[in-house]
Design a protein that fits this description.
Length: 241
């Protein structure tokens, strides 16, 4: 009898410790490195606009989350971003209870608010592992299209199924993300276990027109689809992120 009670106690302690080790709220700071020569590889003038030692552009982002909500946004800075035109800084709100996603994009200086469902990603999880910010992560692969592949490193100890931009759907939080050619790389620099304010995680009510991604994409393609800059913008704004 004593043995059975001891086993029950040990099992309870194990289950409690497993649950407590799962982190479902916090703040992650990411560094994104974008190789502008790879991003604008079909634009001959890029080497005139961007010097060799400036081709890697660094942007910082923050991901706030709790057990059901998340916000991904660029980190605020007083510094002037001289090459702000070269990279996108999307804002993404996600509600995993309602499966809703709000994305705010700035396209050629104009702000668009997109109202969609949370993105469904069919990842292939591998046995490869690496340590990011002190967390053990596993590698997963996503074929976005026939020509675009993403690599992600996710941590199951952080159990929110989220990551940079609109990516998610893994059994854990993405701490590292990269395109196959290394043109865009996100890596977590810090992970803080904090409880974000609800005001932070909820999108501000607005009277702006709400778009569906497919409808906005079709509209822009109609207006600018034959222009080389329009094609590039379409790819960078909608093909991956």
């Amino acid at each position: 009898m004593k043995c059975n009670l001891y086993l029950i106690f040990i099992s309870f302690v194990f289950i409690a410790s497993t649950i407590s080790s799962q982190i479902n709220h916090g703040k992650i700071t990411y560094e994104r490195k974008t190789n502008l020569y790879k991003k604008f590889k079909n634009i001959d003038e890029i080497t005139e606009w961007v010097k060799e030692d400036e081709k890697i552009k660094i942007d910082m982002f923050e991901l706030y989350f709790n057990d059901s909500l998340s916000l991904f946004k660029a980190q605020e800075s007083d510094l002037v971003d001289k090459k702000g035109w070269a990279t996108n800084k999307n804002i993404v709100y996600q509600n995993r209870n309602t499966q809703k996603r709000i994305t705010i994009k700035t396209i050629w200086g104009e702000r668009f608010t997109l109202d969609d469902s949370i993105r469904i990603c069919k990842w292939k999880i591998t046995d490869n592992k690496r340590n990011i910010c002190g967390f053990q992560c596993r590698k997963a692969i996503l074929n976005v299209s026939d020509s675009i592949r993403l690599y992600a490193w996710f941590c199951s100890e952080l159990n929110a199924t989220i990551g940079p931009e609109s990516l998610g759907g893994l059994p854990g939080t993405i701490l590292g993300l990269a395109t196959e050619d290394g043109g865009v790389i996100y890596f977590a620099k810090t992970v803080e276990v904090i409880n974000p304010n609800m005001e932070t995680l909820l999108p501000t009510k607005t009277k702006e027109k709400l778009y569906k991604t497919a409808a906005l994409k079709a509209q822009i393609k109609k207006d600018f689809g034959n222009d080389r800059w329009g094609k590039l913008m379409m790819f960078n704004q909608f093909e991956v992120w």
